[in-house]
Amino acid sequence: MSPSPLLPLSRRLAWLLVALPLSGLCETIGSVDTAFILIGPDHKIVVEAFDDPKVAGVTCYVSRARTGGVKGALGLAEDKSEASIACRQVGPISFTKPLPKQEEVFSESMSPLFKKLRVVRMVDGKRNTLAYLTYSDRLVDGSPTNSITAVQVDRATPIPLK
Question: From CA 85, how far away is CA 133, in angstroms rounded?
């Protein structure tokens, strides 16, 4: 499936951005099969890692369902909304620039159109902690299913706020 050559260039580029996975932003750590599918890949739970782009030394691990079968193989399936997150300090923490109080740091498409998995970083200045929330949304109706984790930053390294 590809965009029609008759579409204007801007529409073809938009289609390409929707169709491409955000593989450059995250790394698949592993997966486990959850259901056998006769034709196409099995349903599975995938664990992916991504580094916070503005906080060196913090990596987040997200687990989520990935739909298999023929639709999953073709990228046409809609993945389930459930996801879990764990962010950890993996090295010395430093900041590339001041952080906003709340910011989306990662998103990935969960269906061909309109559904995304999002990760939002929130700064708890009082406790010098970074909280990371994951949830999914849809253009019309999102899911209240969510997961949260936090990374305590040493008091010797105050979190710079915008």
Answer: 8
Q: What is the pLDDT of residues 66-98, one digit of tens each?
A: 777 666 666 656 666 678 899 999 999 999 899
- Contacts of 133-141 with C-beta under 8 Å, sequence gap 24+, read 133/85, 134/62, 134/83, 134/84, 134/85, 135/83, 136/81, 136/83, 136/110, 138/114, 139/113, 139/114, 139/115, 140/114
User: CB–CB of 107/116 below 8 Å?
Assistant: yes
| pTM: predicted TM-score of the whole model, two decimal places | 0.74
DSSP annotation of 153 = P
pLDDT tens track for 142-161: 667 889 999 999 999 999 99
Q: How many CB atoms lie within 10 A of CB 153?
A: 22
Parse the chain into domains and list their residue ranges.
Answer: 22-152
3-state SS class at 5: coil
Helix, strand, coil tally for the chain in percent (to 5)? 10, 50, 40
